[in-house]
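The instructor's notes for this session suggest beginning with a concrete chain rather than abstract definitions. Hand out the sequence below and ask the class to guess, before any prediction is shown, which regions might be ordered.
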Amino acid sequence: MRTVNIHEAKTHLSRLVDKAAQGESFIIAKAGKPMVKVIALAEKDSDAPQRLGFLAGQLHVPDDFDRMAGDTIAELFSGGTP
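After discussion, reveal the predicted structure:
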């Protein structure tokens, strides 16, 4: 596995990231001491459950949601009790 010093990594970061994304991982060293390993992220697994929108159609948000309990909230912010 290729090791690059931190100065070289800063100078050629775009090129190094492109290579890492293609599977050529590398190590960044500072003063000759290995500090981090750069590897490509795994592709999204098509069998993995979808998180975004997983409750779609299961919840109902009222049209006046942003106005609900407005008087109570205003009282609390002004130091009053509900």
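Then share the key points. The chain has a mean pLDDT of 87. The beta strands are 2-5, 26-30, 33-38.
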